[in-house]
Amino acid sequence: MFRFTLNRLAMALPTLFIVAVAVFVLIRLIPGDPAQLLLGDLADPARLLELRTHLGLDKSWLVQFGVWGGHALRGDLGVSITTGEPVLQLVLSRFMVSAQIVVVAVILAVIVAVPAGMIAAWKQNRLPDLALVGAATLLVSLPTFWLGLLLLLFFGLKLDWLPVVGYVSVMTDWKTGLLYLVMPIMTLFLHEIGVLIRMARASTLEVLRLDYITHARAKGLSERAVMMRHAFRNSFGPTWTLIGLVLGNLLGGVAVVETVFTVPGLGRLLVDAIFARDYPVIQGCLLFVAVIYVLTNLVVDLCYPLFDPRVLAE
């Protein structure tokens, strides 16, 4: 187990370095100058040069990356160009908002999707299977922003059950805060449940075709016992891997949902920083998401032997 953990950690470090380099280079290929945006198109060239020097933008990319990377290794992601706040503090505060939405949505999706996928596999090519697969395919096909707008239109405007615009922290007023989080959570839940249902169904079908399942049925075990005692654990492995990928992807892709529902989370911070060409915030957000993604998948890899002990024998 220790060697398995070291191997996964060794694979994670180069990934983070590649992400850091890619993020640093790609955001500087975006047209626009932060200093120009701050001072305006009619800014004095001398003042513009002074601001670029103050922000360190007059140096070469290699020097800028070395300075930023050195500070990032010490946990210092710099200071926001537009607000002057420490980037790490800004990212952590916004991350807590996004985490509430993403984690709850994934937990709900797993609770619903895994049993639904197993039922679909158990009733293969019958009405429950066709209905669940059809619903899953439809939900996967719907873009998250369009699904969010539909929820806003129906539950916010037509029925007036939930607030349409704004955000209240759960820490400030938990009842009102939960109302503001319902539709963002439901949007991600409905979108991801389709992916998880299809994976749970596919992995369960694969397990149900194995010889030991046939042997269990030949011993006279009920279908419920076969599914719960024998099929569930072995079929949950691939789904567990997908859960880690979904969790990481949602943290990176929650920007659309937060923009639709005006939620001040990490994704909304990233979108605003891109428009303002706030390099430290963009770099900090993307590097933070990459770290969370890598750590999430590391935890998934370390837990995988619980479902398939053969992994440790590799």
Automatic annotation (TrEMBL):
<dbReference type="InterPro" id="IPR045621">
    <property type="entry name" value="BPD_transp_1_N"/>
</dbReference>
<feature type="transmembrane region" description="Helical">
    <location>
        <begin position="281"/>
        <end position="300"/>
    </location>
</feature>
<keyword id="KW-1003">Cell membrane</keyword>
<comment type="similarity">
    <text>Belongs to the binding-protein-dependent transport system permease family.</text>
</comment>
<keyword id="KW-0813">Transport</keyword>
<feature type="transmembrane region" description="Helical">
    <location>
        <begin position="95"/>
        <end position="118"/>
    </location>
</feature>
<protein>
    <submittedName>
        <fullName>ABC transporter permease</fullName>
    </submittedName>
</protein>
<dbReference type="InterPro" id="IPR035906">
    <property type="entry name" value="MetI-like_sf"/>
</dbReference>
<feature type="domain" description="ABC transmembrane type-1">
    <location>
        <begin position="95"/>
        <end position="304"/>
    </location>
</feature>
<dbReference type="Pfam" id="PF19300">
    <property type="entry name" value="BPD_transp_1_N"/>
</dbReference>
<keyword id="KW-0472">Membrane</keyword>
<feature type="transmembrane region" description="Helical">
    <location>
        <begin position="177"/>
        <end position="197"/>
    </location>
</feature>
<dbReference type="Pfam" id="PF00528">
    <property type="entry name" value="BPD_transp_1"/>
</dbReference>
<feature type="transmembrane region" description="Helical">
    <location>
        <begin position="12"/>
        <end position="30"/>
    </location>
</feature>
<feature type="transmembrane region" description="Helical">
    <location>
        <begin position="130"/>
        <end position="157"/>
    </location>
</feature>
<keyword id="KW-1133">Transmembrane helix</keyword>
<dbReference type="InterPro" id="IPR000515">
    <property type="entry name" value="MetI-like"/>
</dbReference>
<feature type="transmembrane region" description="Helical">
    <location>
        <begin position="237"/>
        <end position="261"/>
    </location>
</feature>
<keyword id="KW-0812">Transmembrane</keyword>
